[in-house]
Amino acid sequence: MADSRSSVQSPCAACKLLRRRCVIDCIFAPYFPADQTLMFSSVHKIFGASNVSKMLQELPENKRWDAVRSLVYEANARIEDPVYGCVGVIFLLQQEVVRLQTQLMQAQAEIMRLQVQGWKPGMITSGIRKLDNFHEEPGNTCFTKEVIHQSIDTASGVDMLFR
Ligand SMILES: [Zn+2]
């Protein structure tokens, strides 16, 4: 009878890369199957197999898949950008959030200004045309317009309530 430490037929990506025997209860086997050597090599290069093994062992089993996914993401980002890693991506997205919040506030201010000038739901089309010309900078224009259109829908909905 085979004991739980006996090696499995096909070693996982980690054991293949580390040139060691892959046991039945290998900590890496469920997350790094044999065909995922590249995925494991990234994680090993940045965090070290021993640290990854420790990290996974300290987590409950139902959290390990998410941990592996984030470790792989972080490792790949660090390989791609040795200075900032995934912090570079986070920083860019935070800047994008601030930029979009500013645009949203400008759009809301514009809606309020139009309403003060007597803007009515029947005039939505001209309002949209006016706001479409409001943000013409490249990148995320669709999202920006979508936000503006949603704001207009909300504003006209509110307007309908008070008629
Ligand atoms: Zn293994």
Description of the structure:
Keywords: Coiled coil. The chain is mainly α and 163 residues long. It has two domains: 68 residues, no CATH class; 75 residues, no CATH class. Helices cover 66% and strands 0% of the residues. The N and C termini lie far apart (81 Å). The C terminus is likely disordered. The site of zinc ion has 8 residues, from α1. Zinc ion (ZN) binds next to α1.
How big a fraction of the residues is strand?
Answer: under 5%
Indicate the low-confidence ranges by residue numbers.
139-143, 154-163
Total number of distinct structural domains: 2
Structural class: mainly alpha
Main sheet summary: none
Counted by DSSP, the helix tally is 7
Q: Averaging pLDDT over every residue, what do you get?
A: 81
How widely separated are the two ends? 81 Å
Shape: elongated
Beta-strand segment tally: 0
- Helices and strands, in order, run as HHHHHHH
Return Rg in Å.
Answer: 27 Å
- What kind of oligomer do you see? single chain
Bound molecules: zinc ion
Helix percentage? 55-70%
Sequence-ordered SSE layout with sheet pairings:
Layout: H1 13-18, H2 37-47, H3 49-58, H4 61-80, H5 86-116, H6 124-132, H7 141-161
Bound molecules: zinc ion.
